[in-house]
Write a structure and sequence with these properties.
It contains three helices and twelve strands, in the order ααββββββββββββα. The protein has helices spanning about 25-50, 90-105, 250-265; strands at about 115-120, 120-130, 135-140, 150-155, 160-165, 170-175, 185-190, 195-200, 210, 215-220, 225-230, 235-240. The protein has a four-stranded antiparallel β-sheet with strand order 1-2-3-4, with helices on one face. A four-stranded antiparallel β-sheet has the order 5-6-7-8, with no helix packed on it. The protein has a four-stranded antiparallel β-sheet with strand order 9-10-11-12, with no helix packed on it.
């Protein structure tokens, strides 16, 4: 059903009165006016509704969306350890390190030679050279500077002799000459030729020697024989027991370390 709004001042009739026949133009005009007025009312209502809702035909703005700021990446924590400080070396440890450096400069293997310290000098007698040959060379080592210089020649090539020192003199018992095992007990000091003190009853190699008081003791490598030697008279005596000083003979590195330490102490 069509509902047509009625505009004031107009008359809308659904049917013509009986017996009346109006011209076509008279019949059409009122309907057109009525329809036009109705559309106007609808348009006015739309405008009023639009003004009441904000006066804009644009869609309402989308609600603001809160975007959280990105969480910053965690800063890596550096786990740093405190600087480690090396413990201070003792005087003997420093002397031993210096002894190793000096030993590396020697033309002979340290453990193959006989050692004698006189003041700030250390002398090596005989031994095995760096090339592996037996030598009769004597070398002088300055314990303060580490300088090595020639000190002459021994009476013969010699290694593996028992060695002990007293009063600036070196005593050598037995050893290997490169041709034979030695039986002599020899005495040597810088600037002097070697001399024979006495002879052992049998040849020895790898013997140990040490002074106890004024007496030189010599013990064989297998510790089966012990001899005491009076170095002043040259008297040799077989004894049954080695003194404690020969219980654990020091190595040549120990001897060199003691020499370095003594030289440093003496200034």
């Amino acid at each position: 059903m069509l509902v047509v709004p009625v505009i004031p001042g107009t008359t809308l009739r659904s049917a013509e009165p009986a017996g009346e026949r109006a011209p076509a133009s008279a019949r059409v005009l009122p309907v057109a006016l009525a329809l036009g007025g109705g559309l106007a009312v609808v348009a006015l209502a739309v405008v009023i509704f639009g003004l009441g809702s904000g006066g804009s035909h644009h869609a309402a703005p989308a609600p603001a969306v809160s975007v959280a700021a990105p969480t910053p990446a965690p800063t890596p924590v550096e786990h740093t350890s405190p600087a480690l400080t090396a413990p201070a070396l003792t005087a003997r440890q420093r002397a031993r390190a210096a002894a190793k450096r000096m030993a590396a400069r020697l033309p002979v293997a340290l453990d193959s030679t006989a050692l004698l310290r006189v003041g700030s000098k250390l002398y090596t007698v005989g031994g095995v050279s760096r090339s592996g040959s037996l030598t009769d060379a004597i070398w002088e080592l300055d314990l303060r500077t580490g300088r090595v210089s020639r000190g002459g020649h021994f009476v013969e090539p010699l290694t593996a002799a028992g060695a002990a020192s007293r009063g600036g003199e070196l005593y050598l018992a037995g050893g290997w000459t490169g041709e034979k095992l030695a039986t002599g007990v020899l005495r040597w000091s810088p600037g002097h030729s070697s001399e024979l003190v006495t002879r052992l009853p049998n040849a020895l190699r790898g013997a140990s020697a040490a002074f106890v008081g004024g007496t030189l003791y010599v013990v064989t490598a297998d510790r089966s024989q012990v001899f005491s030697v009076d170095v002043e008279s040259g008297t040799l005596t077989a004894v049954t027991k080695a003194p404690p000083a020969l219980g654990k003979p020091p190595s040549n590195l120990d001897v060199l370390t003691d020499a370095v330490l003594a030289a440093k102490t003496a200034g």
